[in-house]
TrEMBL record:
Lineage: Bacteria, Pseudomonadati, Pseudomonadota, Gammaproteobacteria, Lysobacterales
GO molecular function annotations of the record: double-stranded DNA binding
GO CC, alphabetical: bacterial nucleoid; cytoplasm
One GO term (biological process): DNA recombination
Function: May be involved in recombination.
Keyword field contains Cytoplasm: yes
Subcellular location: Cytoplasm, Nucleoid
Annotated protein name in UniProt: Recombination-associated protein RdgC
């Protein structure tokens, strides 16, 4: 269950008190089945799988939760085709074309008739809270999905003032400087991936993978004024990832030195395996997040009036 992407949010110290009742708060916001006339539903499900009722897995200050969703798949083209058929029948039978108001009513009828027969697509999204350091970490590179996760927790808690990171150092400028100077912070090394852009509107974009980032080719792009928007990095020889200008961690992968610490993977149960993996992952990621906080100047927010 290692996370593959990280969208990071910070919350003030006062929120920690409300997290003591997190399991109870989540319980009243469980995922329910999508009704016949509903497009979608969202709620919390067990991180242990469908056979468990527990909604929270906790290891020390870390709390793992899973947000589930059910969405009915009703393609717009299907609705449009059925609506066109009905409009054509009215035109043939009555010799007239329905007006805008009637077309709207017909469309609503089509949707209400087709929805109960539409397939349901389930989805799951994992996230965890670090109560000590004030981080909410979502396993997604999508801004919308991550913000939806924050909203779901806020709805359960009643109050959850988690906000996106607000770095005092420009990630784009800092990462561009790392690539130009070749001087990265201790423990950080260049990977083999980069996205360079001309900062001008509609400027050129260069994407490289499996590329020596210290090559003359890359340097020429930098000399022409392009800046780093995404940069492949390796942290402490323990994990590799791509960091973007919004400090979203993409394509996160833990290297063999970390995976070897899990042993042969013969845990007695799925629960024991989840416990071991989550404990290792959160401790590793805490080290990374603490460095991001230091490199980019990311203060923990205080209370807002």
């Amino acid at each position: 269950m290692f996370f593959r992407n990280l969208s990071l949010f910070r919350f003030p110290e006062s929120v920690t008190k409300s997290l003591k009742h997190l399991a109870k708060d989540l319980d009243s916001h469980r995922l329910r089945e999508c009704g016949p006339l509903e497009l979608s539903t969202r709620g919390f499900v067990s991180p242990y799988g469908r056979d468990s009722e527990e909604l929270l897995h906790q290891t020390g200050a870390f709390s793992l939760l899973t947000i589930g969703a059910e969405e009915r798949l009703l393609p717009g083209v299907v609705v449009a085709e059925e609506l066109a058929d009905r409009i054509a029948k009215i035109a043939d039978k009555e010799g007239r074309r329905p007006g805008a108001k009637e077309r709207k009513r017909l469309k609503e009828e089509v949707i209400s008739e087709l929805l109960p027969r539409a397939f349901i697509r389930p989805s799951r999204l994992s996230a965890y809270l670090d109560a000590e350091q004030g981080w909410f970490v979502v396993d997604s590179a999508s801004r919308k999905a991550a913000e939806d996760a924050v909203s779901q927790v806020r709805e359960a808690l009643g109050r959850f003032p988690a906000t996106p990171m607000a770095p005092s150092e420009s990630p784009r400028n800092l990462m561009t400087g790392w690539l130009i100077d070749g001087k990265l912070p201790p423990g950080l090394a260049l990977g083999e991936e980069v996205e360079l852009r001309d900062p001008a509107e509609a400027g050129a974009i260069v994407r490289c993978r499996r590329q020596d980032l210290e090559s003359d080719e890359i340097r020429e792009h930098l000399k022409s004024g392009k800046q780093v928007f995404q940069l492949g990095l390796v942290f402490d020889d323990r994990m590799g990832f791509v960091l973007d200008e919004d400090l979203v961690v993409r394509r996160l992968r833990f290297l063999d030195v970390v995976l070897d610490e899990l042993g042969d993977g013969t845990a007695e149960s799925a629960r024991a395996e989840l416990d071991a993996t989550f404990a290792l992952m959160t401790l590793e990621l805490r080290n990374l997040v603490e460095r991001l906080e230091k490199w980019f100047g990311i203060p923990r927010p205080g209370e807002r009036d």
